[in-house]
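User: Fold both of these, please.

Assistant: Here is the first one.
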Amino acid sequence: MTTAASASVGEGNIARPTRVVFAMPVIVAALGLILLLLGQSALRSSNRELARGQFVTHSKAVAWTIDDALGQADPLRERLKEIALSWDVRDDPTAHAYELSDLLLGRPGLAYVSVSFPDGTFAGVYLEDDGRATRFQISEVVAPGKTKKHIWDPTGRRGLVHVLDEETAYDPRTRDFYKLALSKPGPVWTEPYPFYQTNVTGITLAEAVHERDRPDALHAVITIDFDIEALSAVMSQTQKPEGAVLVLHAADGTILAAPGFRERYPNLQYPGNRPLAIGDLDDPVLKRLVARSSFEASALWDFEERGVKYLAASERVGERHGLPWYTSMSVEEERFLAALPSLRQQSLVASAVAVSVALLVSLFLARHLTRARRAVAEATAKAEVAEGRAKELGSYRLVARLAQGGMGEVWRAEHRLLARPAAIKLIRADTTDPEGHRIAEERFRREAETLAGLSSRHTVQIFDYGVSEDGTFYLVMELLDGIDLDHLVSNDGPQPAARVISILLQVLGSLREAHDVGLVHRDIKPGNLFLSRAADEVDIVKVLDFGVVRAAVGKGDKTDERGAGGIDYRAPSDASMHKLAESNVNLTTKDGYLGTPGYMAPEQIRHQPVDGRTDLYSLGCVAYYLLTGDMMFASNSSMSTMVAHMTKPPPSPRAKVKGWLPEELERIVLDCLAKDPSKRPPNAKVVVERLRAIDIPPEHTWTPDRAEVWWGTFRREGAIVAAETGRLIVARS
């Protein structure tokens, strides 16, 4: 009896709140010390590998920065072509000074843009004084070997300010870039070469521009130049380890950028007859670095020079522009790893603080054990989700969730090193609807696989893709600033015919590329066409949602209308298009048709073979909507709408258009809306040619000035901004 009572009393003492209050902090402290010791041991063994991984990340960031700088050339080239075509050599050349000057604003890495005419006249804008001054130049050939050059400052408040007149022997027609542009169709990159007079090493994107009405008649040659000093300035702005040496170079050792090279080699002179090479710098470390980089890409290695160990990394850059370049970086290994001891010391302090906080918190939690367990469980679950997302989206920092629904989310994000904005959409695993999740994954994969192989500036760009350990798919895409065409018409009403022509031409630019590789979008509608702005350009159309794209192989199919995604960075080769065709049958759902009823072609509704003409029918529906503000066959029933598309003749938009509507545009829209695909235009190229042939009176032309005025009103009124994926609508503050 006494023994049992004693035992009962002992158990009661242990269970008393005071015992728990003292016991829990002791347990927490002991566990904290054990974890601290284990953590320090793990930290010492992993710090070196983490540091090397960080070094590779810095190297990749430099490569991405250069790729972004070179990527400016394509949209800039299109604007420069338009300026050149509107320029008559008989014009006052200074009338175009400000147009050219605007092209260089806010474009890091660019050194020169120019227009060269067949009579030897040369006009261009360039930067000097390390990019602080803009200069406009005109050169006119007055006799063989004799050219008069005039230079102005276009930044003055009272117009052009004359700077210099001089006589040179420069004739653009004798330069290699001019000859290269004439020898090949389309844009072409030169090899690195020394620029005229300055001898600065650079590279040029050149293109021959022909007359609009005479494709065989040369109008001008346009150029966009990048030089070693401008590209070096871009590279110097990237985040890099202290003391690191960066170089952008070709496989043969030609140097294209090297931040700080002027300070390291103050007496360096550019060779006059060839580009700058690694041998001109007399730097054994750089020679070792470039020699290894020329044989390997995306590599990390060590080397020793004069008794000093170096850590080095290289990345391929410029491949999507057809440029076989490398960015290489090296740093003294001891200097780079010197931060590790301080890191261990910081972790000791942080761990000690964490243990102390845990002790204090445990005193409070001891009185609320049940509630604490629930809170800890929830916090642990959230921490695991956050940790998983941090791993799966490694290079991107999630800034704000923009939308959430069904199985997906859309986030605004930034690249951690480049601070580049992006839109990230996630598709979460859904065990309650495995069939729906399978279709979402397939749509996700198909969208990314398609976008990875398309390069049109009017197709939404993809940056990255991955799948987390918990099955969450994510797709990183460009973040668009603007409004989709559905909300454009809802907010702004029917659009002017000239603007509709401009929009259609841009959409056709994207579709033409997709059709040329055998792909059909199958969901062209206003909600998937996005009107955006970027830097100083406005009214840029982007085609979105390639999640239901398929190869035009001639099989009908059914699917749902839900968005999703997926990815493979390979271009759509024959094998991948065959893979797309095979996967179509697996997207069928029990209750949905492919596409959107109001914009579906008759053959698409009937599950008959589809090709590029199917997208042209949908685009005709979009054109009707833009011109009239109404859907072509509006109905409360999706089935009634689809029956109308199969049976009713398309109505002419003229009855609903109050303003100017050219007969040619009306005819094009009705031709695209033919029920029989064989009676529609055969391809996107034909529609483009017919649209460009429309004569637009000056009073109706949709000029850049009119577009700027519209966008200014759009901003002031706080109009709706649509962000890509999930049909997200966000108010712009």
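And the second sequence with its predicted structure:
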Amino acid sequence: MNREHSLHFPLQHIHKFLLAGFVVLLLAGAFLFWPQSQADVVQAKSNYLTSFVDTYPHTAGTQLDSCNTCHPSVPDLNPYGEDYRSHGHNFQAIELLDSDGDGYSNIEEINALTFPGDPNSHPGAQPTATPA
């Protein structure tokens, strides 16, 4: 084995070990932080839903007493959820808006127990299945 080859051989192994170590640390870090970030998301949604039902007590136990009021799927927001977020997480600030553009204000839809973020769910419409 010539001298040049013997010097490069150990360096190649060192680089592989460093790269493997970096990948392991990166993955370990991702797994350490993943559960906490998911817990924060779920906690926030739980608080928002509690706030919604506290603001509109007649919605307790109805289809509106669910994450579907603001989310077509987690973590996506429907138009009502977007308006809630953009208005400082204040439900009363968006009552007079028509978030889903169906011709009914959000408060009209909430009082009728229809989804204010779903244009296919509005007062007088045939009941729709809870959005998935």
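Residues 42-124 form one domain.
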